[in-house]
């Protein structure tokens, strides 16, 4: 079966990513399917495309309301039918629920997103039993194992809930899972026979860099961000206090940044998240509370102000960069004292938990201090081999681009290990270091260490040298930290063997980053087969921002960056040609394309550009049911609230649809609705304002009238104004 034409039709892509095609074929064939695919690997498309192609409705079980909403909005963006995707959860009222059911019965709804709790409600379960279900997809399937019985029993019970609704194929999807967790998921879902697909965890477009964290870290961050003004980025900090501090420092330095953490009230969190999505700010400074529900494809950098507690967290958080396959820069600032701080936090936890936490931290230290290819180190952690010479994305890290200087430290390693042995393995790093450099303190004096012949045998090196060596020796497992006696250094069998038979040990030195030494490497965006017209891209971005503001959607929901690049390569000047552009299907071309092709046509004429001639393609003119419905019922002068209710929309959503209709050039009569809200003089006053205004911004109008008119009144007046003046 050819999957490429539906891929192009619905999503505007010409080719699949990684394992997507094989996974989709498995689902279309009606087989149980299990998918492990990293963040940004294109998991969602694996069930979205088969759902759009299959008869009936696919149920998608997801634990995160924010993520469901994001995906539903995205699917609605590629279709003429608002009801093509729905959420069914506790946030809906009775009217909303009835609309969802009506759309499922009529066959409009292809994807139904539900929380596991919703599926066990008898009202929903009995309704779904009578419908044609194509398959059930379980996103974030690791919740079955990770959250265990107590946290979300509904996840453990999904197998029986699904069987009670219909005997349909089950698709489990997760971004991270160890072998043990994988087996648990398959067993719990009752799909041990599933076709299994494990994608590579390699994200070749991400560039990895770790810099030493100094007192100047905030300055370093400001310098980095200022070189990328206008690009979106996330900065992760471990504490709420640090989030607030960093956000404030960025703001003072003229960077559009907002804080995000669990201590802010829900309203502020939503507002800040929306500002980031809508490109009203460039940077979010956040704790790990941020990111789970974010599906923003054009995050260009992720900075870790504080190193995370595990490589899993690091991988997930850096994975939020460059999800459109464009540039993604992952910069972490690392100081070993941050690791010690994290170890102190763990000291109060049960020993078993401390041991796991400590092992995870050691992996982070290993990654931060390694001199090998960082991508290789990271992928090895996930059980994947990587060729650092020819592998995809091989040179995309600081160690490959700028190898660390190494020097022979064989004798000093032997000195270090001997001192640990001769002090009877009872000191922590600090005391071992003081013994080496010959610095007395109360503890060393009480043990008479200062009188030993080895006291001060490492005076020729600085304390920071010995500290770095201790860490590098820890990473190769010559010594370990004793958990029970917090942080005491103990020799391992490998370390004891080394004292007797020392071998070559190449110690790596950190890079130094001096003021003005700009070590930021420009990462090339993956080209779509040519070089885009940079000037046109800039103009298209301005137009996208304008269109997005008019429609109240994030700019990337109009067209993503790679689509704009492709437009600036192919110069489409009609809707047929536009629908051939990367990431633009027929629905999107019709929905947003008019202004873009007009702009491109005049640009082509002005600069006398020779266009490629392979863009001609036939398009099927599918009319929008919702658009027709709104036009017919405003002609019948039905109250707007009634029109909205009958389609399961809130009033502001209906007005947004009406705006889309009139912005695309179709007339719409809203006079009758306005006559109920505003008298003749008021309407005239607002009409005159729009005639004189430089922009059609509603916020500017609200400011101008000092709150005399509300948001919806001004939006309806804008519709009337464009109707009369523009259409």
For the record, the CATH architecture of the largest domain stands as: 3-Layer(aba) Sandwich
Helix content bin = 40-55%
Number of beta-strand segments: 17
Class from secondary-structure proportions: alpha/beta
The Rg value, from CA coordinates, equals 30 Å
The CATH topology name of the largest domain reads Rossmann fold
In whole angstroms, the N-to-C terminal distance is 44 Å
Number of helices: 37
How are the strands of the biggest sheet laid out side by side? 3-4-2-5-6-1-7
What's the level 1 CATH class of the largest domain? Alpha Beta
* CATH homologous superfamily identity of the largest domain: P-loop containing nucleotide triphosphate hydrolases
Total individual domains:
5
Mean pLDDT: 84
- Give the quaternary arrangement of the chains: single chain
Shape: globular
User: Approximately how much beta-strand content do the residues carry?
Assistant: 5-15%
SSE topology sketch:
Blueprint: H1 4-11, H2 20-28, E1 33-36, H3 43-53, E2 57-61, H4 65-77, E3 85-88, H5 94-105, E4 111-114, H6 116-119, H7 122-129, E5 133-138, H8 143-146, H9 148-151, H10 153-156, H11 158-165, E6 170-174, H12 179-189, E7 195-198, E8 206-212, H13 217-226, E9 232-236, H14 240-252, E10 257-260, H15 266-277, E11 283-286, E12 299-304, H16 311-318, E13 328-334, H17 336-346, H18 351-369, H19 374-381, H20 398-401, E14 406-408, H21 410-422, H22 429-437, H23 442-446, H24 463-475, E15 479-482, E16 488-491, H25 493-500, E17 506-508, H26 534-551, H27 555-558, H28 561-570, H29 575-578, H30 586-606, H31 625-635, H32 640-646, H33 651-663, H34 671-677, H35 680-692, H36 698-704, H37 711-725
Parallel strand pairs: 1-6, 1-7, 2-4, 2-5, 3-4, 5-6, 8-13, 9-11, 9-12, 10-11, 12-13
Antiparallel strand pairs: 14-17, 15-16
């Amino acid at each position: 079966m050819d999957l490429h034409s539906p891929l192009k039709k619905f999503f505007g892509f010409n080719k699949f990513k990684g394992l997507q095609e094989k996974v989709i074929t498995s689902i279309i064939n009606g087989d149980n399917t299990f998918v492990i695919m990293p963040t940004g690997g294109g998991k969602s498309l694996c069930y979205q495309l088969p759902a759009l192609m299959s008869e009936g409705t696919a149920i998608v079980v997801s634990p995160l309301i924010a993520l469901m909403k994001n995906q539903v909005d995205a699917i609605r963006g590629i279709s003429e039918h608002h009801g093509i995707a729905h959420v069914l959860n506790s946030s809906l009222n009775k009217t909303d629920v009835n609309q969802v059911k009506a759309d499922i019965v009529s066959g409009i709804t292809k994807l139904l997103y539900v929380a596991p709790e919703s599926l066990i409600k008898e009202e929903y379960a009995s309704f779904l039993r009578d419908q044609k279900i194509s398959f059930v997809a379980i996103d974030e399937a690791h919740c079955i194992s990770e959250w265990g019985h107590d946290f979300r029993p509904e996840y453990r019970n999904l197998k029986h809930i699904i069987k009670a609704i219909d005997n349909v194929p089950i698709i489990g999807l997760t971004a991270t899972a160890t072998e043990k967790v994988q087996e648990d998921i398959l067993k719990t879902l009752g799909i041990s026979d599933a076709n299994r697909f494990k994608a590579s965890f390699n994200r070749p477009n991400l560039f990895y860099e770790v810099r030493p964290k100094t007192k100047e870290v905030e300055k370093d961050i400001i310098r980095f961000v200022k070189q990328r003004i206008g690009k979106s980025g996330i900065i992760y900090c471990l504490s709420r206090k640090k989030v607030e501090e960093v956000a404030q420092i960025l703001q003072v330095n003229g960077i559009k940044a907002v804080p995000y953490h669990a201590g802010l009230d829900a309203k502020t969190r939503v507002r800040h998240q929306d500002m980031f999505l809508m490109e009203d700010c460039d940077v979010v400074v956040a704790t790990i509370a941020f990111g789970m529900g974010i599906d923003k494809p054009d995050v260009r950098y992720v900075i870790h102000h504080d190193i995370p507690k595990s490589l899993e967290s690091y991988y997930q958080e850096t994975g939020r960069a460059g999800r459109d396959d464009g540039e993604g820069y992952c910069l972490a600032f690392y100081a070993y004292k941050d690791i010690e701080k994290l170890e102190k936090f763990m000291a109060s936890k049960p020993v078993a938990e401390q041991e796991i936490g400590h092992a995870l931290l050691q992996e982070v230290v290993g990654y931060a201090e390694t001199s090998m290819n960082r991508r290789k180190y990271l992928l090895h952690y996930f059980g994947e081999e990587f060729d650092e010479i020819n592998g995809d994305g091989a040179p995309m890290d600081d160690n490959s681009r700028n190898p660390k200087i190494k020097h022979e430290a064989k004798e000093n390693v032997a000195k270090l290990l001997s001192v640990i042995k001769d002090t009877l393995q009872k000191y922590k790093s600090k005391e071992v270091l003081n013994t080496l450099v010959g610095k007395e303190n109360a503890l060393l004096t009480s043990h008479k260490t200062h009188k030993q012949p080895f006291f001060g045998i490492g005076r020729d090196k600085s304390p920071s040298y010995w500290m770095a060596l201790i860490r590098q020796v820890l990473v190769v497992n010559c010594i370990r930290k004793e958990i029970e006696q917090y942080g005491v250094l103990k020799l391992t069998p490998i370390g004891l063997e080394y004292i007797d038979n020392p071998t070559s040990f190449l110690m790596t030195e950190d890079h130094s980053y001096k003021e003005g030494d700009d070590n930021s490497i420009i990462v090339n965006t993956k080209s779509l087969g040519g070089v885009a017209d940079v000037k046109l891209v800039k103009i298209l971005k301005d137009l996208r921002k304008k269109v997005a503001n008019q429609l109240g959607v994030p700019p990337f929901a109009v067209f993503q960056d790679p689509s704009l690049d492709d437009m600036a390569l192919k110069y489409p000047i009609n809707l047929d040609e536009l629908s051939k552009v990367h990431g633009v299907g027929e629905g999107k071309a019709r929905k947003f394309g008019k202004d873009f092709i007009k702009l491109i046509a005049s640009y082509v004429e002005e600069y006398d550009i020779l266009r490629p001639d392979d863009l001609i393609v036939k398009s099927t003119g599918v009319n929008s049911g919702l658009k027709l419905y709104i036009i017919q019922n405003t002609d019948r002068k039905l109250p707007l609230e009634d029109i909205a209710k009958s389609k399961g929309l809130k009033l502001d959503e209906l007005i947004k649809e009406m705006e889309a209709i009139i912005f695309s050039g179709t007339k719409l009569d809203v006079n009758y609705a306005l006559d109920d809200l505003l008298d003749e003089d008021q309407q005239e006053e607002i009409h005159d304002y729009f005639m004189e205004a430089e922009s059609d911004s509603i916020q500017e109008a609200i400011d101008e009238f000092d709150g005399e008119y509300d948001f919806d009144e001004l939006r309806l007046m804008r519709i009337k104004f464009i109707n009369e003046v523009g259409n």
